[in-house]
Every structure is written in C-alpha cells, then in structure tokens.
Amino acid sequence: EGISSPLHRKVLDAEFFYAMGDACYRQHQHQQCVFAYESAMEMKAAPKAVSLSAVHYQLGVSCRELNEFDRAVDHFRRVDKPITVSLSMGDILCEMEGCYNAMGEMEEAEDCVRRATEVSIPPIRPENVARVAWFRYQLSGEGDATIGLLEECLKRTGLGKKQQGDMHAMLGRVHLDRRDWGNAEKSLALSCKKEPGVVATWMALAELYSATDRDDMAMRALQRATELDKAADGAWSLMAGMFEKHGQASRAMQIYDRMDPNDPHVKMRQNQILLKAALRLQRIFRGHQARKLMQSRHPRTVARNYGARGPLRSNTPGMGSAGGE
C-alpha cells in the first residue's frame, strides 16, 4: 500500500517521529535525529512521552554536532524547563556560549557565560561548572577557589577527553599565572595529551618552558602550535622573540615578514631589528676607519740588520764564540 494509506498515516504520526528522534539522539545519529524531530513538529502535535524542552535540547545538541550553530542556539533558547533533561539554566547558557564561540561571536559568548554566573541555579555539568569558574577567575583572579573547583570537576566520572583537556588547560593556566611551574607543567602536559589539537595550550606550555630557561622545548611547543594553525600569529611572534633572544635576528626577521604587516607589534620589532643592524654596521665601519687611520699615522717598520741578533765571533786563536765552548 502507498504511504498515504490510512494505515500508514495512523502509524507514522507525530509520536512515532518523536520516539524516533529520541532513539536517534541516544545513538548519536544526529542527522536522523534532526529529521525525525522536525518531521514531528511539522505535524503541530506536542510530544506525549518526552517534554518539548527535552526535544529542543536534543535538537540543539544535534544541530551543534552538525556544525549548524545558528539553529542550535535557536533551539537552546527554547529550552524553558532544563530540569526535564537534568540540567539548569546555567548549563543551557553554557551550551549557547559554546555555539557563539564556534561562530566567532565573542561578545554574545561572553554575555552567555556572564549570565550563567548570575542565574539562581548554577550549572550542574562539570564542564560547565569549570567554564563558569574560569570566567570568574578571569574577572577576579581568585586562584585558590578556581583551583579547588577545577580539581573537583576533574574527579567526576564520565568526562570525555575534550572535557578533561579543557579543564587541565584551565588549571595549568591558573598555576602558570601563579608561577607554580611544576603544577602548571603537569596540567598543561596532560591537556596536550588529552586534546593535542589546541593551539592555545601549546603556546601556554611554550611560555612555561621559556620562563624556566628551556628554550629548546619552548621552540618545539611553538612549532607544534604553528603546525596546527599556520595563521597563529601569537605563536609566530613568540618564536621570533626567542630567535631575537638568542641573537638570530635574520631568522626572527623572516618570521616577522610572514606575519600581518599592519600589526603594530610586528612593525615595531622589525624596526628594532633594522635599527640594531644599522648601529652594528656603523660600529664596524667606524672601527675599520679608526684602524686605517692608526696605520697611516704609525707605519710598520721592519728591521733590516739581520746580523744584529747573531752570536759574536772572534778570529783570535783559542777563542770561541761569546758564549764560550
């Protein structure tokens, strides 16, 4: 029979598609989840087995996983009862913040995480607790409280590698700001192991190595950062600074030449390198001129009396040289 038969219309109702969407979501089949839920909502029928807030939350997650961040934000906004998915409004705001970050809309992202710090029910999920703790640390600089919260979050079970990597990176950054080199290195290294594709973590590790006079390791960390992102001007700038530190101005200049020529820092460093090179050439030239002048005033003389240093000899019988025999 055709799909338009009464039997099919009865079976393929909205509740069928809601159930299908929920099943696909649990199996991480996000494309099918979106199709099923949107098909159900087109039928203008409210779900019976699940809440509408849960549907919008799952749609938001699925759209985010499909890199459809605008649609994800729209669905997250419609989650008016987050308790139905065992979350708080703080968690939903953190989900929206992640989408805005992915779209490069940093002001909206910051507004979301700020609101997450102000809601009556704070985030529940450990990754969102960590995100809010990190935001508060950036505002207040309260390191002890932040370290305690991050360490508590890392003890939670069920965390993925990305979540662990993010938390270790935050913890390492706090330790680095406090010049606790040992704990900073431990946390940043763990973050790079859990989530090796994050440029900012490699740069923080390079900063630590440079601060502890391990420039070779710092250079390797910066090279890794530039391999991950060829446009990581921050990493290139640190690398150029290290070449300058070790007197390799030509290599530093090569790096600055590949960076944004309109960057005031790049222009300043290029001018400084050129000025130092000019002053060095000037000193060399003046030294050469001074040596030429000295040579013209005091010409070198060469002794011609080669016999003056020879032994004295006598023709008197029985007498040898002046030194005697």
Describe this structure in words.
There is one protein chain. This protein has 325 residues and is mostly helical. The chain is 69% helix and 0% strand. It contains 16 helices and no strands. The chain has helices spanning 6-11, 14-26, 30-42, 52-65, 69-77, 89-103, 106-118, 126-140, 143-154, 161-177, 181-194, 199-211, 215-228, 233-245, 249-257, 264-297. α7 packs across α8, α10 (161-177) runs antiparallel to α11 and α15 (249-257) packs antiparallel against α16 (264-297). The model is unreliable at 1-9 and 319-325 (pLDDT under 50).
* H-E string: HHHHHHHHHHHHHHHH
N→C terminal distance: 137 Å
Which overall shape is indicated by the principal axes computed on the Cα atoms?
Answer: elongated
The parts where pLDDT drops under 50 for at least 5 residues are 1-9, 319-325
Number of helices, counting only DSSP H or I runs of 4 residues or more: 16
Q: Give the tally of β-strands.
A: 0
Radius of gyration: 36 Å
Tell me what portion of residues adopts beta-strand conformation: under 5%
Mean pLDDT: 85
Largest sheet: none
Roughly how much helix do the residues carry, as a percent range? 55-70%
Structural class: mainly alpha
